[in-house]
Amino acid sequence: MCTRDVIDAKQTPSPRKLNFLQHTEETIGEQAYWRTVNSAYYDEDRAFVRFLIPRQKRVLELGCGCGDLLAALEPGYGVGIDFSTGAIERAKSQFPNLNFIVGDVEDANTLSAIEGPFDYIVVSDTIGMFERIDETLRMVHRLCSPETRLVISYYSHLWEPVLKIGEILKLKSKQPPINYFATADFLNLMDLADFEVIRHEQRQLLPRKLLGLGTFVNRFIAPLPGIRRLCLRTYLVGRPIRQFPDRKLSASIVIPCRNERGNIESAITRMPRFGSQQEIIFVEGNSVDGTFEECERVREKYKDQWQIKVMKQEGKGKGDAVRKGFAHATGDVLMILDADLTMPPEELPRYHSIIEIGKADFVNGTRLVYPMEDEAMRRLNFLANRTFAYIFSYLVNTRLTDTLCGTKVLRRDHYEALIRERSYFGNFDPFGDFDLIFGAAKQNLKMIETPVHYKARTFGETQISRFRDGWLLLKMVLFAYRKLKAI
């Protein structure tokens, strides 16, 4: 088949695209050699994409070459498209369990012949060869569900002269001129194509092993703020922008409570009605003030007005209580309300609405935007929260100002996906806040903060130790860096 026959006859290929195609066909036999020479680079690239994309997902790769990356992702159903007949033939022979198609990914006819949706759509390096990036990405929408994630990887424009020198010195394969984009340009193109970026990562400062030095630098030094701007590889994860103004979702409000007897009835009497249906789940944590008995009394008193469940916690810590409550929840949306009611129950409908219309996948409350009542938060706690907020925002690629705010909301199906991947982090978090935040980041969920009007306690005492829990927060930072950045 000649190069012009590979591209749909209705679309006139540009000389630049034909040049790319001819170069690809002529150098297929060299690819294995260059992957061996630059094995450190390719190994780290595949490892990080595998971190972004869990196994056994439905994956489509646009510009798949010989299929090595797609195969490395171990998809449950994988489809690769490339305009090179030779590359596709090699991919089919090497990976017969995957599906490969010859076609131009910028041609609507090629994409319309594919059946979606996919969990992940990958564009690795080939984005620099596209001639109509935003138009092509818009066409990709027909292969997306609201949960689809678009993963784009490309070379930093800062490395263009270095890569050219590498070609001259025969340290890497030669290629026709590609488009080198600054990340700001890509963000604009994604916006034009109605995708929003929810994750931005930069990797590989030294794309060589160098007796282990390169591996150490790339894992622990390259992801650091400031330094990461110098990295060779950039990865963007986006989601399609879609909202559902008419969608109605039920809600489960989990209220962990320990020694909060005076707040239990108020949590019910102040609870607003929202969603298609509501259930309230009290998880009592071995109180000594009669909180469990109060929960049962309130359940009986309001049984004709509210669906209320009362459970006794076997383990310890708020995180354990939240996990028990979520395990017994039946609502579409899972919500946490602290029993101290410093976050007013009256504000819960706003959080539910954000999830219901699809504006975000995970909502975190923040107490640090609106003025708070006197004594609602001690000054040392406020300063510590601010400091850790900056650090955690970097770690999870989302601006978070108050990671310890007890109000967190997400869909139940997203939580169930988080549970399936929980082994990656393990049982590390007695708070419950970071188990959800880190899990949401790992699952590439769209996170957003919503401010609350934080109130002072009207009953009981805080169960947080600023020094003991401050030390635990520091350990969380190190843990998250190792699990989310030092990959």
Your description of this structure?
The chain is an alpha/beta fold. The protein folds into two domains: 3-240, Vaccinia Virus protein VP39 (Rossmann fold, 3-Layer(aba) Sandwich); 251-485, Spore Coat Polysaccharide Biosynthesis Protein SpsA, Chain A (Alpha-Beta Complex). Helix content is 39%, strand content 18%. It has helices spanning 3-6, 15-27, 31-37, 39-52, 68-72, 85-94, 108-112, 133-140, 160-168, 183-192, 213-221, 264-269, 291-301, 318-327, 348-357, 379-396, 412-420, 433-442, 466-485; strands at 58-62, 77-82, 99-102, 118-124, 144-155, 195-203, 233-240, 251-257, 278-284, 308-312, 333-336, 362-366, 408-411, 447-451. It has a seven-stranded mixed β-sheet, sandwiched between helices. Strands 10-9-8-11-13-12-14 form a seven-stranded mixed β-sheet, with helices on both faces. Helix 3 crosses helix 4 (39-52), helix 8 packs across helix 10 and helix 17 packs across helix 18. The chain is elongated and about 80 Å long.
Features:
single chain; Rossmann fold; alpha/beta; 19 helices; Spore Coat Polysaccharide Biosynthesis Protein SpsA, Chain A; seven-stranded mixed beta sheet; 2 domains; disordered N terminus
Give the helix/strand class.
Answer: alpha/beta
In CATH terms, what is the fold-level topology of the largest domain? Answer: Rossmann fold
Q: If classified by CATH, what would the architecture of the largest domain be?
A: 3-Layer(aba) Sandwich
Helix content: 25-40%
Averaged pLDDT: 88
**Cα end-to-end separation:** 42 Å
How many strand units?
Answer: 14
The amount of beta strand, in percent, is 15-25%
Task: Please state the CA-atom Rg, rounded to the nearest Å.
Answer: 26 Å
> Helix count?
19
Which word captures the global form?
elongated
Q: Find the CATH superfamily of the largest domain.
A: Vaccinia Virus protein VP39
Low-confidence spans: 1-10
Q: What is the highest CATH level, the class of the largest domain?
A: Alpha Beta
Adjacency order of strands in the biggest sheet: 3-2-1-4-5-7-6
Kindly give the count of domains. Answer: 2
What does the largest sheet look like?
7 strands, mixed
